[in-house]
Amino acid sequence: MPVFALGTSADFPPATRAGRRGLLAVGGDLSPRRLLRAYGGGIFPWYEESQPVLWWSPDPRFVLFPGEFHRGATLRKVLRRGGFSFAFDRDFAAVIDACARPRAGEPGTWITPDMRRAYVRLHEHGYAHSLEARQGGELVGGLYGVSLGGCFFAESMFHSVANASKAALAVLDATLADMDFLVIDCQVPTPHLAAWGGRSIPRRRYLQIVRQGLRRRTLRGSWAGIAPSGISE
């Protein structure tokens, strides 16, 4: 399959034209308009600092359906104990900065300075959101992603204490289930996400879900007033 070169237009070729590994297009920018077009078409950017912007739409697609997060006995105990407090959009920049720090044993990060600026802009436009986990008032875990209609496109998560990111994802899952979201896009599989309830679905089905989700009104703006759900379950 050919890899498409993007120009100044924010339009993308159909996601179904991505190659076997999921690479669809190269180039373009990370403007809010282009990023929103990408997510709405089942496409996301993922590249390293030395590369041009690469745009992907893998088949199958890895997702978590809201309400299907697997809470084990340990996590249930952690949430009941009340060791973490959770809030949306209190410090988006701090969350993305923490996600951008290289993990142990990894040489770098895919959250380049340009990517950071792009998602901070999306947050300022009311489309990107963070869910933060705090312990004793200190930010110890969280995640961020993009919300369009009834879809949440998760981008990255972090933790500095055990169970903080897992707890944040469990709370996000419960909150979006209460808000009747259709899907949490996880992009590609990882062992942890699979153990927590994520699963692979055909790209064709994923694109159908996204189209259905985009028929709903996007909850644009700060989510700071949304009370996280499922904390005491």
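(ticket continues) Second input and output from the same batch:
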Amino acid sequence: ISLMEEPAPGATFRLLERYPFASRGRLLYVVGPSGAGKDAVLAWVREHLPGGAPVVFARRTITRAPKGEDSRFLSASEFQAELAAGAFAMHWRANGNWYGIGAELRSWLAQGLTVVVNGSRDYLPRALADFPGLEVIHLTAPAETLRERLARRAREGEAELEQRLARGAALRLPESVRFTEIVNDAAISDAGRALLGRLLPDTHTLPRT
């Protein structure tokens, strides 16, 4: 159910709140600190997912140019227009940019599919409120590994790098939340296979490579 508001007579309606019905599918919300390798691990999983697996990867809409990840680019004004039209099931702002997950996520869940979202830790409380059955996958790595990876990509100065590491401190969740931590400190395939193990029902076999 969606609660809408008409700000003024004849004005475009805007979305105030969504109240989801119970869904049959699974929603896996993948989070992790900078340098954990979320995009690389998710790309490996998409490539190695067995055909016919009932899994969908939600594509993010972002108001910045994509940096190798599978995402859709919109300008800030285009994003706000789609947001007002109810195009997103989730949306958040991070590092000066807007991120959105399409409203089709709800229909996928209603169909009984497993939906994977590349999410934001800051948005997680709202995501849990809107989707109480959400499962959290925390993809991480030891602090020194994160520091080395961030230093290699050379996007931040030392002070900003340390701030990113501080923001990636241990994740705390309510005890009722289903939670899995995957440490990505070796081959991408190791973390990828661990994530596949959470995605696939028992009827599917994990790849050996």
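Agent notes: The chain has seven helices and eleven strands. The mean pLDDT is 85. Closing as not reproducible unless the customer responds.
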